[in-house]
Design a protein that fits this description.
Largest sheet: none
CATH architecture: Up-down Bundle
Helix content: over 70%
CATH superfamily: MFS general substrate transporter like domains
Number of strands: 0
CATH topology: Growth Hormone, Chain: A
Structural class: mainly alpha
């Protein structure tokens, strides 16, 4: 079926992903060099910053979706997650020290973890069953466009600005800030959630996960830290 038949809220979420990923990739593609050449960070520090940031996002995802089921609302968490990430973007441009970047990077990934699962659940809530695959494909495709466009725009902007990192970071803040009004205007919370008819995850179930599961999670986090380093 044609993606043109998808609800406007799904399209809005897709363009929100495109804008935020464009902004994030513009900054993240330049951030390691900015940290080392402008702020004087070591390569090890860059690896630790990235590892902790990504681990934060991964850990938060475990709980944000369950929380959205419990409160019965998706949009507020999606708005909070994207809004939190949008507010961090200007911090990279203003950062006088590594500490500012660490705080911004941590907060940015916290926002990513908060919004991820509720956003995907909201897509399921908004979309007819027969179009679920098309809806997720659309969002992921637009997200991928942002991931490609971000570094490309960053390279062009660096060339035009004479390698002015802070100016490029300011430019990258614009698409991120646009996600907030797009969520407010373009997405309407449905009255009935798909999760209402499904079995909900309860906190006691988390405690029943075997030790082997948490061992795999721990190894994955360590590997993430080592990879980023």
């Amino acid at each position: 079926m044609s993606p043109k038949t998808l609800p406007k809220g799904v399209w809005a979420l897709g363009f929100v992903s495109l804008l935020m990923d464009t902004s994030s990739e513009m900054i993240h593609s330049l951030l390691p060099v900015f940290l080392t050449s402008v702020l004087g960070a070591s390569a090890l520090s860059v690896g630790i910053i990235e590892g902790v940031a990504e681990a934060t996002a991964s850990f938060t995802k475990v709980f944000s979706g369950v929380f959205s089921d419990r409160v019965g609302r998706r949009k507020p968490l999606v708005l909070f997650g994207y809004g939190l990430a949008a507010l961090t973007k200007p911090v990279f441009a203003l950062a006088p020290t590594i500490g500012w970047v660490v705080a911004a990077r941590f907060t940015d990934r916290l926002g990513k973890g908060v919004r991820g699962a509720p956003r995907d659940a909201l897509i399921a809530d908004l979309t007819p069953r027969e179009l679920i695959g098309a809806a997720y494909g659309l969002r992921q495709s637009l997200d991928t466009v942002g991931a490609f466009a971000g570094p490309l725009i960053a390279v062009i902007a660096m060339g035009l600005s004479g390698d002015d990192y802070r100016l490029v970071f300011w430019v990258a803040s614009v698409p991120a800030l646009l996600t907030v009004p797009l969520i407010l205007v373009g997405i309407k919370e449905p009255e009935i959630h798909q999760a209402a008819t499904a079995k909900r995850v309860i906190w006691s179930e988390v405690r029943r996960f075997p030790a082997a599961y948490w061992s795999v999670v721990a190894v994955a986090l360590v590997m993430t830290l080592e990879h980023r380093a």
